[in-house]
Amino acid sequence: MTEPILEYQHVTKDYHVGFRRRHLRALSDFSLAVNPGEIFGFLGPNGAGKTTAIHLAMGFMRPTSGAGKMLGREFGHAATRTRVGFLAENLALHNRKAFELLDFYARLNGIPDSRRRAREALDRLGLSDVGNRTAMKLSRGMQQRVGLAQAIVNDPELLILDEPTSALDPVARVMVRELLLDLKRQGKTVFVSSHLLSEVEAVCDRIAILRKGELVRVGTIAELLENADRCAIVAHGISKEAFPVTAAQNGYLVMEVERARQREMIERIWTAGGEVVSVNPVRESLEEMFLRIAAPGKEARQ
Amino acid sequence: MTKVILIAINHLRDQRWILITMFAYAIGMSIVMGAVSGRPTADDTRFFVEQQMWFSVLFSVFLATAAVNTDMRTRRMLAILSKAVERWQYLLGIVTSISIAIGAYCAMVALLGYMLSTRGGHPLHGVVALGAEVWVAALAVGCVGLFFGLILPPLFATTATLGFLTGVPLVGAKVGMWVVGLSPVTILLVQTIRKFHGVPQIRMSSAVLFTLGQGIVFFTLALFIFLRRDLSRPTE
User: Fold this and answer.
1) Which of B78, B90, B152 has the most A C-beta neighbours within 10 Å, making it the best mutation to test the interface with A?
2) Does residue B156 belong to any structural domain of this protein?
3) Domain range enclosing B82
4) What percentage of chain A has pLDDT greater than the value 70?
5) Residue B233 domain-assigned?
6) pTM of the prediction?
7) How far is CA A49 from CA A126, A138, A291, B112, in A?
8) Hey, are the CB atoms on A78 and B85 less than 8 Å from each other?
9) What is d(CA B129, CA A271) in angstroms, rounded to the nearest whole number?
10) Cα angle at A96 between A91 and A100, to 5 degrees?
11) Where does residue B83 fall: left (phi above 0), alpha (psi -120 to 50 degrees), or beta otherwise?
């Protein structure tokens, strides 16, 4: 079995915030394994603990308990980061020309042909024309692309992106999507946190959903969307008033019921003289599922 | 060492407007002095050099106490530490940057002082030694500032650093002069100024060595904290 490229093992992270050192649990017994070669989406509402989990992997902070490994080494191992690309949320770049900046980051990673790599990274993100412009003076979207360029300048095996498309226009988003798919084709692994569910749905092989520091769902998108606890029964030949119909068309009635009540409902339809046309699991959109399990006040279901 | 130098140069570039302002101020003051006095007296020149040297110490405090906090607040630190850079390399890069900035400033002030004194017809002796000694003192003060900057917000860290430096002799006067020995940089600064005013001082080299030692101790303490602390702040 392949060893995970990124692995969290029962990680808990507590903070003490404010003057009164108020206790805050950002991650609670969090375990997750990201396999080589996959694009892994990391979802959750604001404050769910996504950035904390990413920063733990990068070694910016240490877990209160538990441990983790990135590329086979404990979190925080500096030399391992040569093989990792990272883009932070709310990126802040140093006040230098875009090309110089990438050259600087490449040299920090000990890359000998740093200038060539910097030029390639700029080309790849469509930034060749702005290489001589000060990064901080570029538009927010351009800065985000420079941030992505610095993340790939070292040709990383693992790319960790925290909200990579948050400031990008639709054209740039497509470019980033293609970049991620291209990296996947090259055998790279991408761990991406995002709020843009359509982006995640389009590129990710697997996703994990975090809520209040706890992992509430993990799996492929197809698995998660079809694993809903409800099924849709399509029937005809029955009275609309006698059943909890959610939709009706041309005499066909659709009823969404909990899986536990599926048999009971089918028997009721038969008893009423109706005919069951189909029974399928309810397939939600990623957005519906996300809202159902991650929205405040809703209970998470494993 | 390459990474330390890269980080130092990068930090210098980030601080360039502050540095340019400080350098321009010193050069401007020397030009004004030369233009107004024509031939500045020895006392005027001494006052100018002394004042600028004190500024370099303050300058070091401000640079050091804000360095890590600013980089953490802006998250620029994360961009650097997401590369194959150890935390000690980052902190050493910051200290190297401060030492380069202060070294250049002290050298420039020494040069300006020498030029002014020569113009006045009474060349100052020992201005180079003064610059070197103040540089060592400013470096040690920078390490003290870096330490406080890691445990306090910048404003409090600056106050704590200046409080430590001025508090030690004040406490020493009450409790006993052995207390002053806890902060060799204070002794070095006092001795340096006295020597510059022509009062013979003994054991200057010891004061310099002990000051370097103090700088190393505070840098080690700062490093101890920096290696253990979380570098990003939580969202509530």
Assistant:
1) B78
2) yes
3) 2-228
4) 96
5) no
6) 0.83
7) 32, 30, 17, 55
8) yes
9) 105
10) 105
11) beta
Those residues whose C-beta lies under 8 Å from the C-beta of residue B187, and which sit 6 or more positions away, are B180, B181, B207, B210, B211
For residues A279 and A232, is the Cβ–Cβ distance under 8 A? yes
How much is the CA Rg of chain A, to the nearest whole Å? Answer: 24
In order of their start, the domains of chain A are 6-224 (3.40.50.300), 229-282 (3.30.1490)
Structural domains of chain B, count: 1
The predicted complex's ipTM stands at 0.81
Q: Does residue B222 lie within any of the structural domains?
A: yes
Q: Between chains, do B13 and A95 touch, taking CB under 8 Å as contact?
A: yes
Of B10, B83, B228, the CB nearest to A109: B83
Amino acid at B226: F
Best to test chain B binding among A54, A94, A134 (most B CBs inside 10 Å) = A94
* Beta-carbon pairs below 8 A across chains A and B: 87
- pLDDT tens per residue, range A41-97: 998 888 888 899 999 999 999 999 999 999 989 998 989 999 999 998 877 788 889
The alpha carbon of residue B219 is apart from the nearest alpha carbon of chain A, in Å, by 20
In contact, A166 and A89? CB cutoff 8 Å:
yes
CB contacts of B78 in chain A (<8 Å) are: 55, 58, 60, 86, 88
Note whether residue B220 is domain-resident. Answer: yes
B86 touches chain A (CB under 8 A): yes
* Residue to test with chain A: of B7, B16, B82, B229, most A Cβ within 10 A: B82
**pLDDT 10s digits, A100-129:** 999 999 999 988 888 999 999 999 888 888
Site of tokens 């980080």: B7
Residue A155 pLDDT more than 60? yes
B79 touches chain A (CB under 8 A): yes
Torsion sign over Cα B15, B18, B23, B26: negative
Average pLDDT score over residue span B203-225: 88
Alpha-carbon span B236 to B231, nearest angstrom: 16
- DSSP 3-state assignment of A205? coil
Cβ–Cβ < 8 Å for A35, A2: yes
- Contact yes or no for B81/B231 (Cβ under 8 A): yes
CA-based Rg of chain B, rounded to a whole angstrom? 19
Q: What's the token pair of residue A278? A: 């189909």
Structure token pair of residue B96? 């190297």
> Residue B81: what pLDDT?
92
Nearest CB among A58, A78, A94 relative to B10 is that of: A94
* Assigned token pair, A72: 């086979």
Question: Is any Cβ of chain A less than 8 angstroms from the Cβ of B72?
Answer: no
